[in-house]
Fold this sequence. Notes:
This protein is mostly helical.
Amino acid sequence: xxxxxxxxxxxxxxxxxERTQDLERRTTQLRAxxxxxxxxxxxxxxxxxxxxxxxLVRQRFDFYHAGVFLVDGSGEWAVLRAATGEAGRxxxxxxxxxxxxxxxxxxxxxxxxxxHVSQDVTLDGSYYPNxxxxxxxxxxxxxxxxxxxxxxx
Length: 153
């Protein structure tokens, strides 16, 4: 009976520790979102806002890359408007865009209006293997729109 009780207490302590770690991770993420929101509200131009947002998302969530796509006026293309790093700069210069609802996880999210989270893009049929950036392992785009502006992902 004593051994059974020790195992039960040990299991409960392990579960509490796991939940505490999860809560700490979520708290950190919510704090990052609040910081990003606070910081980007000071931007006065859309482009400046987008550039600041991708930098903050990359830094606060420790992503190696972040980008923002906006859907063009025709509603046909999700166009990369801001991205981090050299790879992001090259993609923007090349006019990188994805067909809404057709190409890639971003195109899928922009077309459906729903977030499309992929923990392992190699297993996701929507994944479009873009060589820049080349180390994508997961993706979390969602369609965003607000204030009557262009929707994006």
